[in-house]
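Our platform keeps sequence and structure together, in a single record for each protein. Because each token names a local backbone shape, the row as a whole describes the fold. One such record is reproduced below, unchanged from the form in which we store it:
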Amino acid sequence: MFIILNRNSNMIKKILKYTGRLIALTVAIASLYLINLFFMKPISIDHYLGKELILDLTGSPEELTYVGVLDRFNWITNHNSKLSIPQENDIEIGVKQTEKIIKTLYKYDDSRLSNIQKNTKKIAIFDYENQLKELKDFPYLDYPLNQIGGIHLNTIEFMNSVHPIRSESEAKAFIKRTDLIKEVYGGVLNHLEKQASNGVFPPEFVYVHVINQLDEFINIPNIEHPLYKQFMLKVGELDLNKDKVDYLEEEIRRSIDESVTPGFKLLRDFMASSQKNANKNHGIWSQPGGDEYYKLKIRTFTTTDYSPEKIHQMGLNEVKRISSRMREILTSLDYDENKSVGELMNELNEDPDFLYADTPDRKEIVLNDYTDMVNEAIEVMTDYFHTMPKSEVVVKAVPEYSEQNAAGGYYQSPALDGSRPGVFYANLYDIKQTPTYSMRTLAYHEATPGHHHQIAHSLENEELTLYRRFGYYTSAFAEGWALYSEILALEAGLAENPYDELGILQSELFRAVRLVVDTGMHYKRWTREEAMKYMKSKTGMSDTEVRVEIERYIVWPGQALSYKVGMIKILELREKAKNELGDKFNIKDFHSAVLDHGNPPLFIVEEMVNDMINQALN
């Protein structure tokens, strides 16, 4: 998976043209472009959608910081000193704006659009109609406070990992932002209260995790707070005299005491007071309108109209197929044929031969090993793509304040101006979470040829329009590609050891299991414990991994389906291309057909591959 600033909202919409060396010229060009967009009637659907992206960007100081291109002009925009404050009428405004956009999109005559623009129109309408339905029909079925991507964790992650501190002014801007956190959480509290008035409460385990997390932030001394520690670490790298450093230290401690901690208390008090109303069930079916909401999330995340039942059966079939191949390998390695694949994999998870020694430098050793795997993959993958990303990718450990409930790994995309590389975050909380045979598959999924390769490729593709480059994101494509990348790496010879192949197959198996447990909980009304038991028995994952994963699916309905659904579609299209092209099939051309069009829904990917096939045959 890859990280976004708020897991309950759309992916960060990053715009403005990327030039690493000529940023001033870029801004000048962008300014002329803005003048054209705002003061002239849009002459194309690309201009119109580009204008909407710019409006989205300028309305979010967090997104401006994430993009990074305008940081040198913060003296004009002042975005690095601001945070988005939730307002009472945000949903109402969102509905009106989205309705207006959809109405405008339908006015564009297909007969006057190029083939690319027709696809752009399809993508935009698909996306905005899904957004509108969620805003109108299900405005309070998300969980703003949850254990893996709640606003309380996202704030810390954004401030520590995204907000830059390269100068004294950026350090002061950091403090201005932390001074706003209490106000931000006040707006979140208003949403939580409306959600409660509509009868929507998360399950009990969410309360337990979130209250514990909030208490930890509240009770920690300000000099031990993750915001303080990261801030002072970065300030210490600046060329500032002692008086300035002392002033900044005093200010960040004050801000934590006066804004950050009181903000966390607002959220903690709400969770504590409403815990008695915790949902006794786990699936989204138990929330008001939950069944229809789940169908919408399936459509949004998988970009298909598959029913929950169809996806459940797909999962069962894939679990059977993958388990059979794993059985073949385990038998060849002389493991007990009388034990299930899940039992044997669980034993492998516990086998000291596949675990790092629990030494003080364990994390550093693991990170170095991951880095070697990523670098090796970058070298090998040059034979499978016409171009490789220019942006660097680095490996870091998941921050300690979120590692206990975070997924096994995730990815954060680079800044457009090159100031921040792509980051593959590896969760090193539990020593059993990092058996050596499973490391390669995670590295290939999150870094190369997975998320980093695909996302950086899109960010660097200046042939794409603003909307096709930054305006739409779908898990079905991004996560489907990342899972496909694991198999591609295996095919490329990056996992010749049979244990490494078992790791890749276990990863694929666990994504297949997701199809079963996600639909099981949200459609077939399984409990959390039933889902955990099924996943444990089929995958052999550790108890910690299983709990974290199942609890993630509960608070993020449907997202876990996108991986395997997307992968299956990409593999189907590759097989189709091979069968129809025969000797004319070129893996680089296939990957370009898939990757060169931004982050499209699967129905557009299919069109692009069909076009590639037709061009190769003619």
Summary: Residues 174 and 251 are 10 Å apart (CA to CA). The longest strand covers residues 393-397. The radius of gyration is 24 Å. Confidence is low (pLDDT under 50) at residues 2-29.
